[in-house]
Amino acid sequence: xxxxxxxxxxxxxxxxxxxxxxxxxxxxxxxxxxxxxxxxxxxxxxxxxxxxxxxxxxxxxxxxxxxxxxxxxxxxxxxxxxxxxxxxxxxxxxxxxxxxxxxxxxxxxxxxxxxxxxxxxxxxxxxxxxxxxxxxxxxxxxxxxxxxxxxxxxxxxxxxxxxxxxxxxx
Length: 170
Ligand code: S3P
Description:
alpha/beta; 5 strands
């Protein structure tokens, strides 16, 4: 199968959906954040950002994407910042069906309110700006866009499978 990459803002549900989708497709699940931890040896994304900085994180994130597309038949759950790099886009565009999981900012805020695992969501005001900046980019690079606000993960998976079928016929 063609790789499927899920993109979207933090809290859009990429990890949950990717896990279900990979099971359903019998595909390998790749979580770029987890791969960064594996490659860096750090215990958390916060630790990577706070100790080594964002640039280091982004370098390993790109390595994770490269490895995943090379492996093939993967469902790749991409960190929310993946669209910030032209190189990442190039890698994904050529090698994956890119699905943007869209969620409104209010939904995202609600989903993330009891977590402190996102270094770029520490200040709501900054996160709002980041969301506004990225939204058009997610849309631009997606092969398919899915509104996730009131949907269950299972429904989202079904919608992705339908869109994938239309694109690749299986
Ligand atoms: C980030 C999103 C996070 C993680 C890191 C940076 C971002 O992943 O990669 O905290 O720049 O939006 P999730 O989108 O899985 O939360």
